[in-house]
Amino acid sequence: MKVVALFVNFMFTAFAVKAQDISYNKNIVNELTSSTYWGRGYTNNGMKKAADYLAAAFEKNGLQPLQKNKYLQPFTYNANSFPGKMEVTINGKKLTPGVDFIVSPDCKGVDAKGTLEQVDSVTFVDKKNSIIVVQNDKLTWSAAQKVVPYTVIEINKKTFTETPTSIKANIENELIKNFEANNVAAFVKGTAQPDSFIFITAHYDHLGGMGSNTYFPGANDNASGVALLLSLSKYYAAHPQKYSIGFILFAGEEIGLLGSKYFTEHPLTPLKNIRFLINTDLAGTGDEGITVVNATEFPKEFAIMNNINNNNKYLSAIGARGKAANSDHYWFTEKGVPAFFFYTRGGIAAYHDVFDKAETLPLNEQADLQSLLIAFITDLQ
Fold first, then answer.
1. N or C end: fewer C-beta atoms under 10 angstroms in the chain?
2. At 56, phi and psi to the nearest 5?
3. Which InterPro entries match (predicted)?
4. Which of 288, 351, 286, 297 shows the shortest CA–CA distance to 324?
């Protein structure tokens, strides 16, 4: 009877944690995608505000900083930014930033008007003012560490169907030299082998703002992964493991995996002490399951994950992919640390655009992802 009672109590607790964490995850995504953090990028102090918020979340969840008395690991890099004017008029029609047009992340500012000459079916040039206009079916933005001596403006063919013949543009850019960013790192001390680590990682930065009135929320990319990570940090703070469980939230991912590169070059714990690293990005959907990068590099661990999923039916599918430099796991793998990177498949298609919002992100597999990862980490120890 005592065993039965313990089992019932365990199941009730697990259900309660699961239900609570879904609400918690949604609150995290809502917070990080709000205008307060302005896309967690390079204007309005958005990235620093996010780093401070996340450090406070680790502390509230009961985690220790990975370096003594400091959750933040500072580093710097150059970043092009767009803090002010973002005005484009084509054929006399004013376009809406993010919806009708974007600028190339490495473009210089410009304040000019001119005539556009057609170069090919989708490219138009104002040679006098070094402006290039390109028509695209989807506007996908990014971030850049440099500035080129011309201005590229991409316009949405679906919202602006005319042939561009004239342009007026007032765009302000600022190259920030030695932009100050921070990785945010914490851990739960292991009960038996505290010097050995399993890490869970995600990047928290996004693209920031394009002009003073438009920002990119970054709900799926990657407030979703941050939410999953913070939820797991709550769980492990309440359930310490044999190994220490470390958590790193990286900055500078969108501009070139810079935060994870810096961490591997200046590790806060010896890299040889990391048993395994699990990186999560784009964790907000999952209708079609997940894809695991490095699955072919670490077939034993991939088989463990698949066996857990097959037995518990958490996700509809777990797809295998080889080595790829497409997220923050990469630099760890290059340094000899075994690592997986997983991302969800199916659902909404918003990515690096102004439509990647909290209100349209389902987070429908976050609870199952958490259960899968907890079981996987248990089997790794």
1. N
2. -65, -35
3. M28_fam (IPR045175), Peptidase_M28 (IPR007484)
4. 297
Helix H or strand E encompassing 215: none
Residue 192 in tokens = 């038996």
Tell me the C-alpha distance between 318 and 291, whole Å: 6
Cis peptide before 178 (omega within 30 of 0): no
Other residues' Cβ atoms within 10 Å of the Cβ of residue 79: 26
d(CA 190, CA 195) in angstroms, rounded, equals: 8
For residues 158 and 152, give the distance between their C-alpha atoms in angstroms, rounded to a whole number: 18
Q: How far is CA 42 from the centre of its chain?
A: 15
pLDDT of 4 reads 40
Three-class DSSP labels, 314-335: CCCCEEEECCCCCCCHHHHHHC
Q: What is the pLDDT of residues 159-181, one digit of tens each?
A: 999 999 999 999 999 999 999 99
pLDDT at 21: 57
For 79, 98, 223, the CA distances from 82, given in Å and listed in that order, are: 10, 13, 22
Q: What's CA 116's distance to the chain center, in Å?
A: 37
| Alpha carbon 61 to its chain's center | 21
> Which backbone phi and psi does 258 adopt, to 5 degrees?
-75, -35
In this structure, are residues 275 and 95 in contact, taking their beta carbons and an 8 Å threshold? no
Dihedral-angle region of residue 208 (phi above 0 means left; psi in -120 to 50 means alpha; beta otherwise) = left
Instruction: Give me the CATH topology for the region 13-77+177-380.
Output: Aminopeptidase (3.40.630)
What average pLDDT score do residues 220-245 get?
98
DSSP 8-state symbol, 272 = G
- CA neighbor of 61 nearest in space, from 186, 184, 183, 219: 186
374 SS3 class:
helix
Question: Mapping DSSP to helix (H, G, I), strand (E, B) and coil, where does residue 191 land?
Answer: coil
- Measure the N-to-C terminal CA separation of the chain; round to a whole number of Å: 30
Q: Please, where in the chain does CATH 3.40.630.10 lie?
A: 13-77+177-380
311 CB burial (10 A radius; 0-12, 13-18, 19+): exposed
Q: Which segments of 70-139 does DSSP mark as H helices, in order?
A: none
